[in-house]
Specification:
The chain is mainly β. It has one domain. The protein is built from three helices and 30 strands. The strands form four sheets. The chain has a 17-stranded parallel beta sheet that branches. A hairpin with a 7-residue loop joins strand 27 and strand 28.
Length: 301
């Protein structure tokens, strides 16, 4: 499945599912006047990150960023099994304004946790966009430091800027496309995805076992490394239209593509090659086959 289409379907599911109804109904009680250094809630009654936090913040359970901008001057940590949804375009208390998440330090996603960061009209409509079929809202995500993910369930990033490195190590929903964990609440397979964003350092995904993984239209200031990832969907891993200043390294992955499917079938495919300033290494040297049984190449990946 094309990365943008998968993101759009997930956003539509979020907008109609029970999880989103709980998030949309959340108020700002998770960010009281003294800005406590934690946010907690359930999927039925999520907490809210809003306003300015002068210290590090920890999330337990489920929290949303849908009540205006949230600025964390320290680090943000998602504890095991937690979920942060920062993909709302409005301040949903007032129905106007905007919501966004900015982390001046590092953002850490721990075992089994899920992060949705950023939304845009092109590839991932905001959950609260009044017309998701013709969306107009957007919400940028900013992490000044590193985005570190240790055995997360899934991480979905759009329209965001990461000042340091991104490293996703292990985790996922297993070698299946059956919904599980938080993703089961809105009927989606578990996946990780990075689109329409900027990573000033390296972007590494290592040892992920899940349904699907994509990297599309991302400017990577360092290297893009895809290593030892096993995905159940034959359309994964899609690595398309990225601008990579360093090297592109792909080794021991289930499969890699620099093309997008043109229909519900795996073939035919539309080539969307990457710009690579350094070397293409391993599975990401020649363009992936455009037709079933066709050869790799002749162009670069």
């Amino acid at each position: 499945m094309d990365v943008s289409e998968l993101g759009r379907r997930l956003s539509l599911l979020l907008g109609t599912g029970g999880l989103a109804l709980g998030i949309l109904a959340a108020n700002a009680t998770g960010a009281a006047a003294d800005r406590p250094a934690n946010c907690s809630g359930s999927f039925e009654s999520p907490g809210v990150l809003s306003g300015t936090y002068s210290s590090n913040v920890t999330v337990e359970g489920a929290c949303a960023v849908n009540a205006g901008p949230a600025l964390i001057k320290g680090n943000l940590t998602l504890r095991p099994g937690a979920a942060v949804v920062a993909a709302f375009g409005l301040d949903d208390r007032t129905g106007s304004g905007s919501s966004s998440l900015t982390v001046n330090g590092n953002l850490q996603v721990q075992r089994g946790a899920t992060l949705l960061l950023g939304c845009d009209p092109q590839s991932f409509p905001c959950i609260d966009d009044p017309n998701p079929e013709q969306p107009t809202l957007s919400s940028p995500g900013v992490v000044s430091g590193n985005l570190s993910e240790q055995q997360p369930l899934g991480v979905v990033v759009h329209n965001s800027t990461i000042g340091g490195n991104v490293q996703e190590t292990g985790g996922g929903g297993g070698l299946t496309c059956e919904p599980s964990g938080v993703f089961a609440a809105f009927g989606s397979p578990v996946y990780s995805d990075y689109e329409d964003s900027m990573v000033n350092g390296n972007l590494d995904v290592i040892g992920l076992t899940s349904c699907w993984l994509g990297v599309a239209r991302v400017h990577v200031g360092g290297n893009l490394n895809m290593l030892h990832n096993q995905l159940a969907d034959p359309d994964a891993i899609e690595i398309i239209s990225n601008d990579i200043s360093g090297n592109l390294l792909c080794q021991k992955n289930s499969r890699v593509w620099d093309s997008a499917d043109l229909s519900e079938s795996l073939y035919p495919r539309l080539s969307e090659p990457n710009s690579v300033g350094g070397h293409r290494i391993g599975q990401c040297v020649l363009a992936s086959p455009a037709s079933e049984g066709g050869p790799s190449g002749p162009g670069p990946f």
